[in-house]
Amino acid sequence: MMDLKTALFYVFSAITVYAALRVITARNPVHAVLHLVLAFFTTGALWILLQAEFLAIALVMVYVGAVMVLFLFVVMMLDINIERLRKGFWNHLWLGGIIGALMVGEMIAVLSTKYFGLDSMPAQAVAADHSNTKELGRLLFTDYVYPFELASVVLLVAIIAAVVLTMRRRQGVRYLDPARQIAVNHRDRIRVVAMKPERDLPAGEGK
């Protein structure tokens, strides 16, 4: 008989898969971002079920609370041509399907081996005051310090690339020059026009 924890795991997993599919199939970008937020929430719930509270809280606070809110505001402020964005989506579906199948195959190959599978991890008794957050930090900066540093370098390169792509000049786009804004003179923005006063017309003359 299935217990409550296992039932919740399958429910949250199904919601996560549905939300992830809606992220790439939704026609409205705002709806796609909202489904991504739902996927993050349910993933955080899965991590709580797996007793990884720190990862769940970090996911909700960092991604849902900051990054995805920023994405949502950016998507809502941009004038996105949805028809142009969706053009050619089904033409490249076969390529996305092949890449997705390769990723699923790699995950199955890694998780099913005797070196990386769940069966190869013997159950270890932990103390009552054991902190998985402390253990995670110790592993990141000892055994996995090089992959951790490599991931930070990749993120730094992505940030620089995003800034460079944003700063490039494009035709038909208006840009602001902060230096010209600071050096502006009020005489260049305000012009006082001298106008002669108008006289009042006698009653009945303007009809």
Whole-number total of structural domains: 3
Can you give the mean pLDDT?
A: 78
Which structural class best describes the helix and strand composition? Answer: mainly alpha
Q: In one word, what is the shape?
A: elongated
Helix content class: 55-70%
H/E topology pattern: HHHHHHHHH
Q: How many β strands by DSSP?
A: 0
Overview of the molecule:
The model has no long low-confidence stretch (mean pLDDT 78). The protein folds into three domains: 1-87, NADH-ubiquinone/plastoquinone oxidoreductase chain 6, subunit NuoJ (Four Helix Bundle (Hemerythrin (Met), subunit A), Up-down Bundle); 89-121; 131-169. The protein is elongated and about 100 Å long. The longest helix has 25 residues, at 53-77. It has 207 residues and is mainly α. Helix 2 packs antiparallel against helix 3. It has helices spanning 4-25, 29-49, 53-77, 82-86, 93-112, 132-140, 145-167, 178-182, 186-189.
